[in-house]
């Protein structure tokens, strides 16, 4: 099992293409399934000890992985049971089923076990798990519509079941019951009921302990609301090379001061204050704690820290050619003064982080016209205001916005997506729910400013700021405020 940091992220179509490329070299689907099931079995054995295991198998290749895992676990001496939603429908799954010599129980009648493996559908699901369980196990495909979406072999198309009626139990309800009764719950590749590419919860599945991703991380492992149900994510290598422009955000490698360093070589950050100077103060403190050598706040502000250089706002102050990053937006306001300061900032020619109120006072064409590196840090409301609303998934929206504005976009939230104009994407693993407090976005803007001023590529600077921000929150635990978060950036940076 491999941690997911830095690993590529593939959509369902990209995963199928990667598997097809391996199959084209002469490796059979059955061989890939055997690799997957064996890797799953060894992972489960390490995690479950001597506890009994119940594996839920669906009709497609995800279910086939489950049959192989059951066989290998049994060969290891583990007590394994299988409960199937229907007979296998793919050739590879049928072959895997033939290799299992034990009994197969009906999904609707299976009794719980201490360890539960979900191998019902995995990636490719497109419809809710709202089908009822009245069709008996083993009936013909015309009656037993066990295919609620698409298994890994999406060429299968079986009829739907009808929605559950009063007194009947749906697939997701039965899954919930079995998961609640288990001590350890493990999903194979992706928990059933989740949309692979969008992160949508097509049904409301139980929260699982662990998900074993096969070959590559999928968007739903990180995008909300799906990610909240997946538990810990670990990657299993089954011999399918995965490459992608999208990847999981990883721990940054940051420059550290050397014997010849001074405040300007570490990076100078200028932050423009506005009507709510406390927000700019937070951004400034964050930039200092994240490692900037010199931070100046342009505008009306007073008080500690004394290391912060406070200067009245002026175009002359903006003209300092030592400014490595200019942060505008935290607490800026939306009045005429704010607009004038934004105009001056855009004309100054410095690399920029545009946040908060400034995102409401600008459009993408104006951003695209800038000839300097720009990082935008919108939350969902600011994103909609700047780029418009859309039903597309968060990764697609962030990518499109980055290309449209020719800027790095940090689409903030519990599933922060960072996109560059060239299509590269980084998705941050789940962050602390306690970040949902005023001022934490200002802290992020300041941290990213410090990274950009230090000379990092804009995508790397954005990623490093997001990583430090998340790590600082993790260190604080519960009930912190933005001031605490800014201070905690020091420990996050020192740990690298």
TrEMBL record:
<dbReference type="Pfam" id="PF01256">
    <property type="entry name" value="Carb_kinase"/>
</dbReference>
<feature type="binding site">
    <location>
        <position position="192"/>
    </location>
    <ligand>
        <name>K(+)</name>
    </ligand>
</feature>
<dbReference type="InterPro" id="IPR029056">
    <property type="entry name" value="Ribokinase-like"/>
</dbReference>
<dbReference type="InterPro" id="IPR017953">
    <property type="entry name" value="Carbohydrate_kinase_pred_CS"/>
</dbReference>
<keyword id="KW-0511">Multifunctional enzyme</keyword>
<feature type="binding site">
    <location>
        <begin position="412"/>
        <end position="416"/>
    </location>
    <ligand>
        <name>AMP</name>
    </ligand>
</feature>
<feature type="domain" description="YjeF C-terminal">
    <location>
        <begin position="246"/>
        <end position="496"/>
    </location>
</feature>
<dbReference type="GO" id="GO:0046496">
    <property type="term" value="P:nicotinamide nucleotide metabolic process"/>
</dbReference>
<feature type="domain" description="YjeF N-terminal">
    <location>
        <begin position="15"/>
        <end position="246"/>
    </location>
</feature>
<dbReference type="GO" id="GO:0052855">
    <property type="term" value="F:ADP-dependent NAD(P)H-hydrate dehydratase activity"/>
</dbReference>
<feature type="binding site">
    <location>
        <position position="331"/>
    </location>
    <ligand>
        <name>(6S)-NADPHX</name>
    </ligand>
</feature>
<keyword id="KW-0479">Metal-binding</keyword>
<comment type="function">
    <text>Catalyzes the dehydration of the S-form of NAD(P)HX at the expense of ADP, which is converted to AMP. Together with NAD(P)HX epimerase, which catalyzes the epimerization of the S- and R-forms, the enzyme allows the repair of both epimers of NAD(P)HX, a damaged form of NAD(P)H that is a result of enzymatic or heat-dependent hydration.</text>
</comment>
<keyword id="KW-0413">Isomerase</keyword>
<feature type="binding site">
    <location>
        <position position="441"/>
    </location>
    <ligand>
        <name>AMP</name>
    </ligand>
</feature>
<dbReference type="InterPro" id="IPR004443">
    <property type="entry name" value="YjeF_N_dom"/>
</dbReference>
<feature type="binding site">
    <location>
        <position position="279"/>
    </location>
    <ligand>
        <name>(6S)-NADPHX</name>
    </ligand>
</feature>
<keyword id="KW-0521">NADP</keyword>
<dbReference type="Pfam" id="PF03853">
    <property type="entry name" value="YjeF_N"/>
</dbReference>
<feature type="binding site">
    <location>
        <position position="189"/>
    </location>
    <ligand>
        <name>(6S)-NADPHX</name>
    </ligand>
</feature>
<comment type="function">
    <text>Bifunctional enzyme that catalyzes the epimerization of the S- and R-forms of NAD(P)HX and the dehydration of the S-form of NAD(P)HX at the expense of ADP, which is converted to AMP. This allows the repair of both epimers of NAD(P)HX, a damaged form of NAD(P)H that is a result of enzymatic or heat-dependent hydration.</text>
</comment>
<dbReference type="InterPro" id="IPR036652">
    <property type="entry name" value="YjeF_N_dom_sf"/>
</dbReference>
<dbReference type="GO" id="GO:0005524">
    <property type="term" value="F:ATP binding"/>
</dbReference>
<dbReference type="GO" id="GO:0110051">
    <property type="term" value="P:metabolite repair"/>
</dbReference>
<comment type="similarity">
    <text>Belongs to the NnrD/CARKD family.</text>
</comment>
<comment type="similarity">
    <text>Belongs to the NnrE/AIBP family.</text>
</comment>
<protein>
    <recommendedName>
        <fullName>Bifunctional NAD(P)H-hydrate repair enzyme</fullName>
        <ecNumber>4.2.1.136</ecNumber>
        <ecNumber>5.1.99.6</ecNumber>
    </recommendedName>
</protein>
<dbReference type="GO" id="GO:0052856">
    <property type="term" value="F:NAD(P)HX epimerase activity"/>
</dbReference>
<feature type="binding site">
    <location>
        <position position="379"/>
    </location>
    <ligand>
        <name>(6S)-NADPHX</name>
    </ligand>
</feature>
<feature type="binding site">
    <location>
        <begin position="61"/>
        <end position="65"/>
    </location>
    <ligand>
        <name>(6S)-NADPHX</name>
    </ligand>
</feature>
<dbReference type="InterPro" id="IPR030677">
    <property type="entry name" value="Nnr"/>
</dbReference>
<keyword id="KW-0630">Potassium</keyword>
<feature type="binding site">
    <location>
        <position position="118"/>
    </location>
    <ligand>
        <name>K(+)</name>
    </ligand>
</feature>
<keyword id="KW-0520">NAD</keyword>
<feature type="binding site">
    <location>
        <begin position="122"/>
        <end position="128"/>
    </location>
    <ligand>
        <name>(6S)-NADPHX</name>
    </ligand>
</feature>
<dbReference type="GO" id="GO:0046872">
    <property type="term" value="F:metal ion binding"/>
</dbReference>
<keyword id="KW-0547">Nucleotide-binding</keyword>
<keyword id="KW-0067">ATP-binding</keyword>
<comment type="subunit">
    <text>Homotetramer.</text>
</comment>
<feature type="binding site">
    <location>
        <position position="62"/>
    </location>
    <ligand>
        <name>K(+)</name>
    </ligand>
</feature>
<feature type="binding site">
    <location>
        <position position="442"/>
    </location>
    <ligand>
        <name>(6S)-NADPHX</name>
    </ligand>
</feature>
<dbReference type="InterPro" id="IPR000631">
    <property type="entry name" value="CARKD"/>
</dbReference>
